[in-house]
Design brief:
It contains 2 helices and 7 strands, in the order E-H-E-E-E-E-H-E-E. A hairpin with a 4-residue loop joins strand 4 and strand 5. It is globular and about 35 Å long. The chain starts with 13 loop residues before the first strand and ends with a strand. The N terminus is likely disordered. The structure holds iron/sulfur cluster (SF4).
Length: about 90
């Protein structure tokens, strides 16, 4: 694992919210954070270890030390299927 970005130290935890319905399987999330995102047989992706919170929505809480990769995943998703919430403030950062 890499080191934490000092500017984000103490900002975590973060909640990743994944809307699998709108995922088109474009896969930049897997390129950005392969520890979290894995290609699925149906052509979409799965968020490893996530909790199912709706018909096709999933959530996972992560520490800030992993956050930058998942920010990249969320920012590069072409359909905004990935959102990231700073849990301390409720602010949506992506
Ligand atoms: S980048 Fe977005 S659309 Fe592409 S596979 Fe990941 S979640 Fe799905």
């Amino acid at each position: 694992m890499g080191t934490a970005n000092p500017s984000s130290a103490g900002d975590g935890p973060f909640k990743i919210i994944f809307d699998r319905d709108i995922c088109i399987g474009a896969l930049p999330c897997v390129a950005a954070a392969a520890e979290y995102w894995i290609r699925s047989d149906d052509g979409k992706v799965d968020l490893k270890g996530a909790t199912k919170t709706g018909e096709n929505t999933y959530e996972l809480v992560v520490d800030e030390i992993y956050n930058n990769k998942n920010i990249n995943a969320a920012e590069t998703c072409p359909v905004q299927a990935i959102k990231i919430i700073k849990m301390k403030t409720g602010e949506q950062i992506v």
